[in-house]
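PROTOCOL LOG
Step 1. Enter all chains and additional molecules of the complex.
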Amino acid sequence: QSALTQPRSVSGSPGQSVTISCTGTSSDVGGYNYVSWYQQHPGKAPKLMIYDVSKRPSGVPDRFSGSKSGNTASLTISGLQAEDEADYYCCSYAGSYTFVFGGGTKLTVL
Amino acid sequence: QVQLVQSGAEVKKPGSSVKVSCKASGGTFSSYTISWVRQAPGQGLEWMGRIIPILGIANYAQKFQGRVTITADKSTSTAYMELSSLRSEDTAVYYCARVEGWELRYWGQGTLVTVSS
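Step 2. Run joint prediction.
Step 3. Record the structure below.
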């Protein structure tokens, strides 16, 4: 089971929007609407930001949104803020009660 | 309020085993799946496996099959992850997380396991 593919890094200026892609296969991302996204600051545990492709847990700003097309899911952060600088990971259900993560994307706010 | 509290850091010799615990509070322990995820230094997240406490059934990532055992004790609301035949590449922070639906909604604070001779 291979990790999902994410860009190693993305960057944007405050107020701008950035999109992070997450590419898998028809056995994971493309096969289920169970993609989630996690934010991780250095030395901290991951935090759920998006689940079921596009749903936001309570407390997550609506600047964060998710979508999916075919085997690729995307996380878009609009109105970038300094505190958004972190690592972001996608995760997909992969059948047989297993999950697979992406390799992670480092977001830099310029 | 759901909380997952993990056991403390461990230093192990190559070839030995480690058992990390994850005690849950808030909510019904047995009803939710607990997953284990690890993160090697400077690396990404890696899903290892999961257990449904109410059934005691565990599933593992292919990579860890035969080397990892995930169990749960309903009486103490505690899940365990035991990894055997440790090697230096197993040095990582190990997280437990409670799964709701198909997402890892609540996370423990992480446990650093260092494998060194």
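Step 4. Note key features.
The CA atoms of residues 28 and 94 of chain A lie 4 Å apart.
The beta strands of chain A are 9-12, 18-23, 35-40, 47-50, 64-69, 72-77, 86-93, 99-101, 105-109.
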